[in-house]
Write a structure and sequence with these properties.
about 120 residues, alpha+beta, GMP Synthetase, Chain A, domain 3, 3-stranded mixed beta sheet, 4 helices, flat
């Protein structure tokens, strides 16, 4: 049952952040940004938000820095829109832009890193 709650909170935060970024932040550099994933920490005090940025390289990093400067406003608005005991701290990062083959390889590497090494 607890896992389902995290999914609902993640989805609610994702929808609200998508709407706020698209319609309430009036910076043209944020046009076309898509919130792809929200991971809520087990204590629900932090969320990691993955965003897809149409720009590449250094421009994408500038957009992430811009989002980091607006996270106070976004957090305040999130507190007003979603009824949570603690409003989580928001951490933005770039979503991986991988094709299906590269994504599978990336996931396999993550699985391998999680396994203990043979001695």
């Amino acid at each position: 049952m607890e896992g389902r709650r995290y999914e609902r909170v993640s989805e609610a935060i994702r929808l609200e952040l998508t709407e706020m970024i698209a319609y309430e932040l009036e910076d043209p550099r944020l046009a076309g940004i898509e919130v792809t994933d929200v991971q809520v920490a087990p204590d629900m005090k932090k969320v990691a938000v993955s965003v897809h940025v149409p720009a590449q390289g250094e421009e994408a990093e500038k957009v992430i820095e811009l989002l980091k400067t607006t996270k106070g406003f976004l957090r305040k608005e999130l507190a007003a829109r979603i009824d949570l005991f603690h409003t989580p701290e928001i951490y933005f990062n770039l979503a991986l832009n991988l094709g299906s083959r590269e994504r599978v390889q990336h996931l396999l590497k993550r699985i391998q890193r999680g396994r203990p090494k043979d001695s």
